[in-house]
Amino acid sequence: MSRLLKGAPVAAELSERAAERARALSDRGITPTLAIVRVGERADDLSYERGALKRCEKVGVAVRRFAFPEGVSAEELLGVIDRINDDASIHGCLIFRPLPAPLDDAVVCAALDPAKDVDCVTDGSLCGVFSSRPVGFPPCTAEAVLALLDHYDVSLEGARVAVVGRSLVIGKPVAMMLLARNATVTMCHTRTVDLASELRRADVVVAAAGHARTVGADALREGQVVVDVGINWDERSARLVGDVDYDAVSGVVDAITPVPGGVGSVTTAVLAKHVVEAAERSCR
């Protein structure tokens, strides 16, 4: 069987380190604080919010919630973003997306100060990721991928890494972050010709296509490490599944993350870490 790369010990390690830094800030009279902006009550948003609240409480990060009905006006929502930008006691902001129509995600996200953008929704944060500069923060899930690989001592220096997915949420940012770690990165997607052949050449595969079981046993080989970022509801089996066909490949590859219980469980720990770091930056 493949080695299982579980997210829980990674999240625990990240949380412990962030809690130490939060205590150091508290000794200086500073409480790291996250603003959560949510419009509507989508089940996945509410689930992530509950996880974020629990994680932040463990780390010592305060949370202020700004929840609105779906009919909120753009003017009211942008007004709240402005107040968050101006409030020195708030160090980070998480905006749940996609926003319901007719709200414009791009306009709302652009209004946020990149210094408080702890999940890479602004152009400033994306610029920081692509230029390897400390502007804003990378996406929490993208950083969770690297944190997980580091925890399990997967070397990225010179490694061949195939990323499946080209979104600005995961695919492109994680590829840039891997490049910054001196990996040789191949960007793939659902329209890549002979995807299986491209993936078999890699030492590490990061699956972030957003489609259940995109990567099957024909695309993988012995000795590989597979990080499955996908979370998809499978009607056939009535359970959550990843972008990798876990049942088919778990006995083939060297190591693989489970879904659920892999990358997703690390994401809120990275979020809390980003808020603490934003608080540290604010008092330099």
Which helices and strands appear, and what pairs or packs with what?
Blueprint: E1 3-4, H1 8-26, E2 33-39, H2 43-59, E3 62-68, H3 74-86, E4 92-95, H4 105-110, H5 123-131, H6 140-151, E5 160-164, H7 171-180, E6 184-188, H8 195-200, E7 204-207, E8 225-228, E9 232-234, E10 239-241, H9 246-249, E11 255-256, H10 264-282
Parallel strand pairs: 1-11, 2-3, 2-4, 5-6, 5-7, 7-8, 8-11
Antiparallel strand pairs: 9-10
Helix pairs in contact: 1-10, 2-10, 6-7, 6-10
Verbal overview:
The protein has two domains: about 90 residues, 3-Layer(aba) Sandwich (Rossmann fold), CATH 3.40.50; about 120 residues, 3-Layer(aba) Sandwich (Rossmann fold), CATH 3.40.50.720. By secondary structure, the protein is of the alpha/beta class. The strands form three sheets. A six-stranded parallel β-sheet has the order 1-11-8-7-5-6. A three-stranded parallel β-sheet has the order 3-2-4, with helices on both faces. A hairpin with a 4-residue loop joins strand 9 and strand 10. The mean pLDDT is about 95. Helix content is about 40%, strand content about 15%. It contains ten helices and eleven strands.
